[in-house]
Amino acid sequence: MELIIHERDDVSYVALAGRFDATGVEEMDQPFTEATTGRGLPTVVDMSGITFMSSLGIGFLFANTKKLKKAGCKLVLLNPQGMVEAVLKTSKMDKVMPLFYELDEAIRAVGGDPTIVGEVSKAEADPAVAEPESDSAPSDTPDNILKLSVTNEMSELEGLYAAVNQFLAKHKTPYRSGYAVNLAIEELLVNVIRYAYVDDDQHTIEIGLGIIDEQIILEIRDSGRPFDPREAPPRDVDVDDLDVGGLGLTLVLDMVDALTYRREDEKNHVHVCIQNRAEEGNELWNAVNDGSSAGSE
Predict the structure, then answer these.
(1) Which of the two residues, 41 and 124, has the higher pLDDT score?
(2) Which of 75, 111, 119, 140 is most buried (most C-beta within 10 Å)?
């Protein structure tokens, strides 16, 4: 991910670019906090360069919003795009992190001076990408099927997404469908990695992805503790002090067309179905999200 810092004394104004998922949150934790919450000033976060955001990204922004609120400051979001905007609204997080679409309005909303132009600096993170194991996919696997495996390590997620998104782009997957696949993989796998295993041993998680007619089928298998994602506790989005707990599975169930679960041979089997139909505008999901469109003054 990339963090662009607009140096000013009245407010903190930063722009994020790239994938705001589990890996992105880890990369941005220190530089974002230093550039925003650490300064104790009202904050504007330009979201126009964010190409994907999971519940961990939302939770990260929400945590910083609560810290700033305690200091008597606001945090607002500027110009989120496409499904990133939709996810923010679906999660009701726009109620605590208001959305703006013009920089001047966002600066005024937090009490800043829109006539000030600050110096620009960048903070980038470019960690090594761990490639997922592909030995579970024999050479005669059909072109419309992708089979991969990863271990229960967060560091393997970025390599997995690279392979998945290359596959989706190759098959000209519609934008919303590609986003839904990425969201389902992120939320379901992070849940398995963090909570499924009672020991510290290495475990293998199998991922299968197939495109059949107008459907994308995702299967995830793990040997962790029994857990049916459909039974995640409901999330109350109307309370005064919003909480992001359980948000990820809520977003998945909202975006996918079907999710089923079974426990078989001491393994969890999660089966997800996503419609693979083009929508208005015929926008396609891209394999590479470089986040180069982050906003500037």
Answers:
(1) 41
(2) 75
Q: Tens digits of per-residue pLDDT, 203-212?
A: 999 999 999 9
Buried-state track 81-101, b at ≥16 Cβ within 10 A, e below 16: eebbbbbbebbebeebbebbe
Mean pLDDT of the chain: 89
Structure tokens at 236: 């109350």
Which positions ≥6 away from 139 have C-beta within 8 Å?
none
Q: How far apart are CA 54 and CA 250, in angstroms?
A: 11
- Burial classification of residue 58, based on how many CB atoms lie within 10 Å of its CB (0-12 exposed, 13-18 middle, 19 or more buried): buried
Q: 120 and 5 in contact (C-beta within 8 Å)?
A: yes
Q: Please, which pLDDT band fits residue 79 given cuts at 50, 70 and 90? A: very high
User: What does CATH list as the number for 145-275?
Assistant: 3.30.565.10
Distance between CA atoms of residues 250 and 187, nearest Å = 10
Q: How many Å apart are CA 297 and CA 147, to the nearest integer?
A: 44
**Would you tell me which CATH number, out of the four given (3.30.750.24, 3.40.190.10, 3.60.15.10, 3.30.70.100), belongs to the domain 2-124?**
3.30.750.24
Phi, psi torsion values for 151, nearest 5 degrees: -95, 170
Q: Where in the chain is the domain with CATH 3.30.565.10?
A: 145-275
* pLDDT digit string, tens, across residues 174-198: 999 999 999 999 999 999 999 999 9
Non-local (6+) Cβ contacts of 9 within 8 A are: 116
Pinpoint the residues of the chain covered by CATH 3.30.750.24.
2-124
pLDDT at residue 138 tops 70:
no
Distance from first CA to last CA of the chain, Å, rounded?
20
Give the residue ranges of DSSP H helices in the chain. 22-35, 55-70, 82-90, 103-109, 157-170, 175-195, 247-255
Tokens of 240: 């005064």
Return left, alpha or beta for 291; rule: phi > 0 is left, psi -120 to 50 is alpha, else beta.
Answer: left
